[in-house]
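User: Fold this; tokens only.

Assistant: Input:
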Amino acid sequence: MQGKVAALLVVIALLIGSGGTYAAFALFQDEPSSSEQSLKQNSGSDIASEELQKINKTYELITDRYVSDVNQKDLLDGAIKGMIDTLEDPYSVYMDPETAEQFSQSLGSSFEGIGAEVSMEDGRVTIVSPYKDSPAEKAGLRPNDKIMTIDGESTEGLDLYDAVLKIRGEKGTVVNLGVLRPGVSEVMEVKVTRDEIPIETVYAKTIEENGKTIGVLQVTSFSENTAESFSKELKKLEDQGIDGLVLDVRNNPGGLLNVVSDMSEELIPNDKPYVQIEDRQGEKQSSVSSLEEKKDYPIVGLIDRGSASAAEILAGALKEAGGYDLVGETSFGKGTVQTTVDLGDGSNIKLTMYKWLTPDGNWIHKEGIEPTVKAEQPAYFYVNPLSAEKTLEYDQNNEQVESAQVMLKGLGFEPGRTDGYYSDKTTTAVKAFQRSNDLTVSGKIDEKTAQKLQENIVDSIRNPENDVQLETAVELLTK
């Protein structure tokens, strides 16, 4: 607060994912006057010196006269956080040096935690998307789940990255999350066993259907090496002579802008820009591919409610610039770009500075991208996890019973109803499930039965034969 602005290296990075990784360039501010002039130009108005003096006076008053000693660093951090909080923007945050250092560890080849991208929505830590095969996905966490408690402590008023550090932890340890899911009235307890989360982002395979070979490229996030991996895997598929390509960005929370740009260069023809970036003055910069013609095979994109940010940029480019079909569900809806500014002491501010627009100029923020072909997975793909604490039995009526009924039905054990009432037929279905899984046949859903139900549901969800959205995409390509 006091003193002059020294030579300050400000490292700026465009962030597209809600957690994101970095693509940086440097801007030097050498003189105090040039720093102030930059602020004036960006804000469009002079910063009154008396207002800055008021902040300085408050700082001096508290440090010199407050009844108790205060930590000056905490005071300054609090002032910065306060300014950021007034923006009411879940994607603009301040990270102190310790938080920034631990956060940067997750940008490497692997990290230990639960494997989920999160943001702050309505003052609560909210799941954007779990990573593929992560502990979060296995535990049943879904996009838009709000984390109300972490190990019994409320997340209300908690800074996003402080919450992330509480959720992360050593491999093999367990974190208990109190989760409130849209459409569910009760907070669910979800136990997640932390693990090592590898940053593998591109998965390739082929599907033989109706005499045609369809390549499938799943991209789980846009990290530093994703474009290179994507290019290699795409060439391998093309060398096999594929007749069509499914580009799967479901549950992809986003990542680096330059990476999704590199990938768009390989797929999107130069008839339209594949993305537009708009600043606060409304000035736009368009990115146009150098690709002159479409690929000689058709492409279908796969999206869902967990496809966010950079994944939506690619989906929008496929739909509006490429003219390709999108299969699945309406995407998450994140249409802003964050810039990370290093404050010189290891701390940084991640600030929303831009909007991104689709090729046709649409801003999809909080709206998402609509698929051209809507396709939902079977009901059990969306089922709420079961709490193992309370036994479920005949004549109960609650949301946990409803979840169990949806699971039983999805596994082929007809419960008679899926409205949450534990009927005679539900009891019969539970007994049949218990017999087929070598469990004690009681007709009640105890801890072991609940655990087995969830394990079987996860196996069914991972079985590609049950993936209705992928089947729909392949069908479009093999007509």
